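Weekly puzzle thread! Below is a chain. First person to post its structure in token form gets bragging rights.
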Amino acid sequence: MKGYYHVSSHGLERNDIFKSREDFIAGMNDVAITLLGFDVVILCFCLMSNHFHFVLYGTLEGCRRFAEEYKRRCAMRMRMSVGEVQALRGLDVRIDRVDSQEYLENVIAYVLRNPLAAGVFLMPYHYPWSSAALYFNGGMKLVGERVNDMSERKRFRILKSRISVPDHYLVDANGMVLPSCYVDVEAVERIFRHPARLMALMSRKVENDVEVALGIAGSVSMTDQEMLTQMNELVRREFHKDSVVQLTMEQRIRLCLLLKRNFMAGAKQIARLTRLDPEIVAKVI
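Winning reply:
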């Protein structure tokens, strides 16, 4: 069954996947080439120096194989360029299903906001190694050299592959396949319906919402009000109750564990929100 998936790699701590402009161009071309081997659709993506993100539409298996092949191509490039044989051996890639319209909008904005969140650029659409600049651009005419009009030698030098490519694949003056040739721009525009909606989310800090949904919010510090909102959602989803006061003691203990695991909440904050004795909470978590 097909659906939307967020594919993300963990950030390398001691190395970079993309060290130079040439590496990023090669990485962008690898996206265009990798896509051709799998029945998946790219809605958006972003390549950062030590990690990458994609939002894909396809089956879970198709998205998993796409991610594995993209990682393999990155590792092969690093091995050939600088001899780093095991550079990506420890790079974990996770795939998370996107199960609601709100989450889909947030995760697309989250992916496109990565350079802004990292302090690299003022606005996402200024960042050249993502699909951020493609959406709601008024049908800008594509200008570039058609890949299939190139000599075989030039094609291989640019793409590092002899795979057949579609006739609409165009390459810019820097030797990069234009992302608009392989990203489903119209699908994203249908999701957001209006450029203001996309711009509003890209301008807003959505990292907390997405990282909480992914269960990786270890560095996110929430106020009691923010945590209360998340807790009430957990109560409804996990226990089918309207309020924490309706939970049994056993259910409240389980809720404590969920708050700790999903949001890294502290014992004192959990005790305040669940109305449990702080000493009991401290022992539980």
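Puzzle host: Confirmed. Bonus trivia for everyone else. The radius of gyration is 22 Å.
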